[in-house]
Design a protein that fits this description.
alpha+beta, Aspartate Aminotransferase, domain 1, 2 domains, 4-stranded mixed sheet
């Protein structure tokens, strides 16, 4: 794997600096001490559609009410495959409940597909020969892992059976990504664009990577004190939210321009 999607080891120590979160709405978190945080981590991209996407929650609720929690064969498998085929026409893919099957197959290097990395085409992606791991698009750690290939290696384990509840939510999230693509790529935060021109941050679509020399732990705390949650792992990019108020954009621009 080329990078971690969720924090481990020292990154967990940074996450413990965050006050207890009582509520999450869209791209904002609300803490126990009544503070609002703009989420620039978004669970490594799993919450790129926000923490309360209405269509996903509706699909999950409707499926859960039928008691379909167990990982049995289900028509939702076909619906998820159809959703993936809309995003990646002609690609081959395998779907696993977790990363253990990937490790068992001996795959040591994969690209990471993320939506909205290109300004002109939100879903442009050159699939590497070795394959790619689709960044999670369901804001839960139980989201299935999707491997994408030009042609899947014959020795890969067969796809896992996934709970229909998770499949329903993930399939809906893929359709919602596609529907939101044009609007998301047109978002323009001019103050932020000016702030990153100093070179401490580099932008790729909606993703910002830090290249300054400041201690990342200190930077994380500084952003947190000002109401912004950075990824707890420096190897992960910050993700611009789908909406910012004028005041939030000004505050974030100031933080980005003075990150040294």
């Amino acid at each position: 794997m080329t990078e971690k999607l969720f924090p481990q080891d020292t990154a967990e120590k940074l996450l413990r600096q965050v006050p207890p979160i009582l509520r999450a709405r869209d791209w904002r978190l609300y803490t126990q001490n009544r503070k609002r945080l703009v989420d620039l981590w978004q669970l490594g991209g799993a919450a790129v559609l926000g923490h309360t996407p209405a269509g996903i929650l509706r699909e999950v609720k409707n499926t859960a009410e039928r008691g379909l929690f167990a990982a049995f064969p289900h028509p939702k498998e076909r619906q998820f495959a159809q959703a993936l085929s809309r995003l990646f026409p002609g690609a081959d893919f395998k779907i696993y409940a977790d990363e253990s099957a990937i490790y068992r197959a001996g795959i040591s290097s994969l690209g990471i597909w993320r939506p909205f990395e290109q300004d002109d085409d939100p879903f442009a992606f050159a699939l590497p020969e070795a394959g790619a791991l689709m960044s999670p698009v369901l804001p839960w750690a139980l989201a299935p892992k999707v491997l994408l290939f030009r042609e899947a290696p014959p020795d890969l384990p067969a796809s896992d059976y996934i709970s229909p509840v998770l499949l329903a939510g993930t399939a809906r999230s893929v359709h919602d990504l596609i529907a939101w693509g044009d609007a998301r790529s047109r978002l323009n935060f001019s103050k932020i664009e000016k702030a990153i021109s100093a070179g401490l941050w580099r932008r790729k679509g909606i993703y910002l990577s830090y290249f300054g020399d400041a201690s990342y732990s200190a930077l994380f705390q500084r952003f947190l004190d000002q109401g912004f949650l950075l990824p707890p792992d420096k190897t992960l990019p910050a993700i611009l939210p789908g909406a910012l108020s004028p005041g939030e954009e000004t505050a974030l621009a100031e933080l980005l321009s003075s990150s040294e």
